[in-house]
Design a protein that fits this description.
Elements lengths: L1 H11 L5 H32 L4 H35 L12 H15 L4 H22 L13 H29 L6 H12 L7 H6 L3
Helix pairs in contact: 2-3, 3-4
Amino acid sequence: MDALLSRLEQLILQPDLAPFLSLVKGARNGIVYGSKVRFPHALVMIMLFRSGSFRDKIKLVLKATRQHARNLSTFAVIYKLSMILLRNINPRGAGKEGRYDSFFAGLLGGYAVFGRQPGSISQQIVIYVFARVMLSLAKLAMQPNMHPLSSLITPEARTTITDNAYPVFASMTWAFVMYIFRWYPDTLVSSLRSSMQYIYADSDHWDSLRTLFIHNK
């Protein structure tokens, strides 16, 4: 057995197998991370805000966890496989990564996994990533030599914008979400709408000390 394990370790350390074994580990890590992130979130949200028996709620938790893990795992495989293929068809030389390979690999994976399956789990993942992308792009926009208008931003202006950008962003985000929740709540994703309903709308109603301080309804 020790000899077999030693042989397997030598095999998986072969440089030629590294790209393909990275697909296996990418799938594994997607499953593990998706499960670790989704399970506690689904457990809390479903137990608190969904009606039904305990058994039904557990089924929903496991279903949400499985879908999140599957989405991340499948995306990882498609992305990494696309990167391998793009490196090997690079006209500048096989094995060299192109400047925009990651963009096109992400485009394909995003369409195949998230774009074609616009369920609530997929939407939550995409919205989460979108918010982080916007923050990163905002930071990149302030860096020197990033775009044609970079030369017009003086160091003093860059410092001022950087210091005030996040407060403005945070304030406008909450201004818009509260306005939308007040007048167009059906356009919000269900998880956000449920949370806001609980905090901001249900808190306007009570009929006893019990429903004021202990139970929502």
